[in-house]
Structure formats: structure tokens, C-alpha cells
Amino acid sequence: MKSKSKGSISKSKHNEDQAFSNEVFAKLSVRKQAKSS
């Protein structure tokens, strides 16, 4: 039971990291487009 809750916690952390990298990637691509145009 305890290990299950720990797994879900690490999963939510992983989702947060994923969202963060997506945000950073989006900002980078927007910057690239602004430069090229």
C-alpha cells in the first residue's frame, strides 16, 4: 500500500517535469521563429 502511493507521487513529479520541458521547448521554438522571420 505504501509503495503504491510513493509510485503515484513520483509519477506526478514526472508529469510536472514533462510539462516544464514542454514549456521551455515552446519558448525556444517561438524565439527561433521570431528570429528567422
- Roughly how many Å is the radius of gyration? 16 Å
- Please provide the ordered H/E string of secondary-structure elements: H
By DSSP (H or I, 4+ residues per run), the number of helices equals 1
Percent range for β-strand residues: under 5%
Indicate the structural class: mainly alpha
Look at the structure and give the mean pLDDT: 84
- Low-confidence blocks of residues: none
The strand count comes to 0
Which overall shape is indicated by the principal axes computed on the Cα atoms? rod-shaped
What is the end-to-end distance?
55 Å
Largest sheet: none
Helical content (DSSP H or I, runs of 4+) = over 70%
How would you characterize this protein structure?
This protein is mainly alpha-helical and 37 residues long. Helices cover 95% and strands 0% of the residues. It contains 1 helix and no strands. It has one helix spanning 2-36. The longest helix has 35 residues, at 2-36. The model has no long low-confidence stretch (mean pLDDT 84).
Question: Main attributes?
Answer:
37 residues; 0% strand; mainly alpha; 1 helix
What is the gist of this entry?
The chain has 37 residues and is an all-alpha fold. It is built from one helix and no strands.
SSE map:
Layout: H1 2-36
